[in-house]
Specification:
Blueprint (H helix, E strand, L loop, with lengths): L2 H22 L17 E8 L2 E8 H8 L8 E8 L6 H6 L3 E3 L4 E10 L2 E9 L4 E3 L11 E3 L3 E2 L5 H5 L4 E9 L3 H6 L5 E2 L6 E8 L2 E7 L5 E2 L11 E6 L5 H9 L8 H12 L4 H17 L16 H8 L13 H6 L10 E4 L4 E6 L18 E5 L6 H9 L9 H13 L2 H10 L2 H9 L15 H13 L1 H8 L2 H9 L12 E6 L5 E6 H13 L9 E4 L3 E2 L8 E4 L3 E5 L8 E6 L5 E5 L4 E3 L5 E2 L4 E6 L5 E6 L2
Parallel strand pairs: 3-5, 10-12, 21-23, 22-24, 23-25, 24-26, 27-30
Antiparallel strand pairs: 1-2, 4-7, 5-6, 6-8, 6-9, 11-14, 12-13, 13-15, 16-17, 17-18, 19-20, 25-29, 26-28, 29-30
Length: about 625
Amino acid sequence: MALEEQILNYVRSINQTLILWKANAKKAEELPEMETVNPDALVIVSEQVAGIYTSKKLTLQKLIESLSLSGQNNKVREVILGSITEAHDLNYLLENTGITVTEDEMVILTALATVNATLVQRQFLWKLGKGEFNPIGSTDINTKLIELQPRFINEIVADELTSSPIAIVYDFGTITDPILDVINTADPARDYTDDEKIYYIRAIKDDVKLLYNFIGINGIYGDGEDQMTEDDLVLVYSSSNADMTDVLNTKLDKGTYTGNADDLLQEAKDYADTQDTATLATANSYTDSVAANKVDKDGAKVLSDNNYSTAEKNKLASIDATHYLAPLQSLADLSAMPQASISDKARVYVENDLSDYFYDATASSGDVAPDDQVGGVGFWRKVAVGGETPTSIKTKYESNADTNAYTDADKAKVTAIDQSVSSAEKTIWNGKVDASGVLATILSGLSAASGTFTSSDTVLTAFGKIKYLIDNIATTYQAILTDVNFGTFINGLTAKTTPVDADFDIIMDSADSNKLKKVSWANRRAASKTYNDTLYAPKFTPVVSIGSNTTLDDTYNGKVILLTANATITLPNGLATNFGVTISTKTGVTLTLSLGGSVTLLNNTGTTMSEKLSCTLLNTGTANEYLTAGNL
């Protein structure tokens, strides 16, 4: 069966299964009630291993045993934790939540999370027993919880979330602008400051009902107040659903789906729960239509990534007996071919020569000419199979410019020179061209003399003037460079109005024997700023807001830090000896000060500070020693 047919049959099977599931699916409240609890009855739980959820069965007996700690019974209480994100994972939510568990209740922890790009509700059974836990989290908290089967968000009625006693819902009604624009321009602004509440935002846009969960930093958001970003919201509910064809295209496109058949069926079932039977029947009809119009795979061919294109077909079509000739035995056979029968660009292999030959109908030279060549045009050119020959290398090398090739013509000229010089002339020439002959003839009487060069100077006179200039160059030109003419030279240069960092000044380096050197304007300005910063205090103290644990560095020197959330501020070793900073806390915020191993504080009474207070830390000029003032 063709691969396409197998895929279509597989999809049809999925659709038919989904229709059956849809017809037989029931909500929990539609199921018959179990009159007597059967300890062997099964419930479905979800276990996460290496980030992957696996469904498993659990008997009621094991569930009861695991929950029978400190007398807990079946009175259920739900604790809403909030939303699990990359920044706020389950441990984070638990470590910031307090809870008191009594003997007569069973506690379920509820949170929202994104799993495989789908928003789900995750619930955990508490099995730590009774007591007061504040906070309740720890690094191994997951080992002390039992996670129930997560529910996809489209299985959850929005009212289940917003009806919680700790939920606050801001309903913006029907909107036309993006939800963030509506929130950030709301007048009056909305209050999201209570960190013990869960805030929801409801709106209707393009006839789609939307419900968002606020997960940002508590505050007041709206016109003239704080502004939300996309990271502050999680889409909890939408009344619109994706088309079935989108699901199939996403999962089956070119084999990129990494799950197995069971995974695909489960995802399709999750989608089917949001669709009606008519929609699934339409999808099934669509697959039948695709099957009716598909092209069957030829059993003799297989699919590959090397597609055979029209351009490649045309190339193969150009290979014919006209341009690729049958092999010949010898060069004599090649030259014997009638010129009229040879097509331009023809190619043939000559076996005795172990080479290919290429025919150029317009060439006036080449390696082999047809015996019946007309007009001296049309030659076979050898295409070397074994690489270059000495003859081809010589020809190609000597055809290049600036190679100083010693050619046959050059050799002939040298031979001619040797033949035109007589033996007597050779003897005279050999007698002059030696060291003694040159010195006696050219350098005899050489002496240094001042003066300008003239066209009538002899070689000795010119050499003497050159020697004089060399002997006196230091004295002559050192005297020319004076403060007067050098100043005149500088004054005559073109002026530049605004220097830039890449410009240079001349400077005398007193630390390096008063040598002249250059210094860039970038370095000059940096040095000036460093010096001036010690003389002039800033006109104002900038305020920096911090809402999380922070280690100070020299960039905070001279600033006021506004602490917007409970946090630990670390004062490390090694800050500048003129370092100073003021820290203030907002309403409901506590400062915890952590000291580096060598840091000491003077005049302080502790390392914590409550809300709406300020303290100042000033370095005394001694490394790691600080004077404290204020409420620390």
